[in-house]
Structure formats: C-alpha cells, structure tokens
Design goal:
This protein is of the alpha/beta class. The chain has helices at about 5-20, 30-35, 50-60, 70-80, 115-130, 145-150, 165-170, 225-230; strands at about 40-45, 65-70, 90, 105-110, 130-140, 175-185, 190-195, 205, 210-215. Helix 4 links the parallel strand 2 (about 65-70) and strand 3.
C-alpha cells in the first residue's frame, strides 16, 4: 500500500470511529437485479465497507469474501454478519494489493469504490482475469454527473465513474449492460434544491446519479465488447 492509500485508510478509520459514516442495510436494487437467475458460486465484494452487499449475497447462497482496507469497516461488517449467521469471509486488505487467482470467481462486485481512475482501470483488468468463464463483474458507483446534479460523494471527477471509463478499462470481457441512472439516495440526509421557482422554499431531495455496468466473461473465452455497448447508454 502506497502512502496516499495509507493516509486514505486512516482517514476512513477515523470517520468510522467518530460515527461520521452512514450506511444502508439493504443492497442496491441494481445489484439485486444483476445477480437474479445466476446459480450461486464464489463471489468477491471489493471495497465492501460495512458489508451490506456481501451479507446479502451470502444470504442468497453465495460463498462470499468481503474485502476492505478499513479495519473499522470490517469490524462493523463482521458484527453485522455475526448477527445474521456469520457466513462471509472478511479480509482487511487494500483491494489493489489483493491476490485474485485466475478464474476463481463467478461474481465480482465493485460498488462505490471511488479511487483514482488509473487505479480503477488496473483493478478492473485484474478482475477480468479472476472471473470464471461465464462469470460476471458488476460495477456501480456515483457517476460524474452526480457532482453537479446529484447528491453525496465523491466531489471530484477524477474518482467519479462513467460508463465509458469502465468500458475502456476492459480488454477481454463483454459489456452486457451500461447505463447512467438516478435513484433516491441511501447515504443519510441529502442536500435539497428548489423544485419549483414559483413556490419559494419548495424543495425536494436530490436524486443520486449512478453509473451501472455489467461485464461478462464469455463461456467461449474472452472477447472485446462491441463498440455499441462499450460507449455505454445514458
């Protein structure tokens, strides 16, 4: 782990200790839809935070490993999992340093892991190799449009997602879904903005704007995504 990542880890640990981090119990609906109909197998949740998706996947029969570089978040995730039957393997590690054996996972999830684009591109490349044939990589996170038009973090475009960023990071897999989608936020109290200038003071919560991408390793081997899908759809 380099110096910047170590500093970031300590910052997250401090936020968890102070109670400055809010999290949702329920999985993102996009994740639920994305695994529908897939026979459970080995799953990897990268940047799992307090573990909502890893715990959900385990409840659906997946053999899950949840990974996060924050010791505090893993402690919270492990306790939440214990209350539900302790079915997840929890690992404290920087996802950029994690060993991912080739062809080991049927499902890899990257959800709201906002790291510099160069690091995300390298991580996605490694995820491609770690998928079994027919395996699926699911990526969801705050879209760059969220900075100006939505609510919540991140505040800097160099760590925000776009469908194009994810598609261009691929060299051996196929994009089967790429979209920008707005949804109600689940990160706690959100900023508000006027919805009708004719009614001063009228306000409603801003929506959260996410990038959603599903990537599949083809049963017959790797292949590049068609341009029509690689460009994404918004």
């Amino acid at each position: 782990m380099n110096h910047d990542r170590a500093v970031s880890r300590e910052r997250w640990n401090a936020r968890y200790r102070k109670g400055d981090v809010t999290w949702a119990d329920e999985p993102v609906e996009f994740v639920v839809r994305s695994i529908s109909g897939i026979p459970p197998g080995r799953a990897l949740d990268l940047g799992c935070g307090p573990g909502r998706h890893a715990i959900y996947l385990a409840a659906q029969g997946w053999r899950v490993c949840g990974v996060d570089f924050s010791e505090e978040s893993i402690t919270i995730a492990r306790e939440r999992d214990r209350c539900r039957g302790a079915r997840v393997e929890w690992v404290t590690s920087d996802v950029l340093d994690l060993e991912m054996p080739a062809g080991a996972y049927r499902l890899i999830l990257i959800s709201y892991l906002h790291i510099p684009h160069s690091e995300l591109v390298r991580l996605i490349s490694r995820c491609e190799h770690a998928l079994e044939r027919g395996g699926r990589l699911i990526v969801v996170g705050h879209d760059v449009a969220n900075i100006r038009e939505g609510t919540g973090r991140p505040r800097h475009k160099d760590v925000a997602y776009t469908t194009q960023l994810i598609a261009d990071a691929l060299s051996r897999c196929t994009v089967v879904h790429a979209a920008r989608r707005s949804r109600p936020p689940d990160h706690g109290t959100s900023p508000v903005h006027p919805v009708d200038s004719s009614e001063p003071g009228s306000a409603a919560p801003r929506l959260q704007i996410d990038t959603e991408v599903i990537v599949v390793r083809d049963a017959a081997g790797y292949r590049r995504a068609p341009d029509s899908l690689r460009s994404g759809s918004c």
